[in-house]
Amino acid sequence: MSIRKFVCAMVLAAFTCASMSGCYGSNALFNKVHNWNGSLGDKWINSIVHFVFFGILPVYGFTLFVDVVILNVIEFWTGSNPLAMGDTYEEMDANGNKIYAVKNADGSLSVNMVDVNGKTAGFTLHRDGNVISAVDASGATIAMRNIDGVNAAFAQK
Hints:
This protein is of the alpha+beta class.
């Protein structure tokens, strides 16, 4: 092995070790593609699309590369991933009740719950320093809690 190849291999190994440690981000782009794939239909459709994206087309590899090399580095230095803003989380339990959570641009989190009969309830979580508060649609604070768990105050309605 020539010295040049050895040096290139060592630089590549050092870069790989440095890039894989300490800068683990949210992988927003990869997760968006993966969640999209999981929402297409039944397990057969999801498996076929996953095989095409993972095996034939390098979509997953490309999105993971962009996340690791670009987006997670931006997230590390700025504290937020450009693609993570406005992320939506949706979940449904076995009874058909649904919950939706949306990360807002101002850092708050809007949560809406819909039961089987269509009744909705919602609130927004805000963070101010070490205090997280839950605010209802009318703007009234319904709960407050310190991040460390002490001095919790809950409002009664």
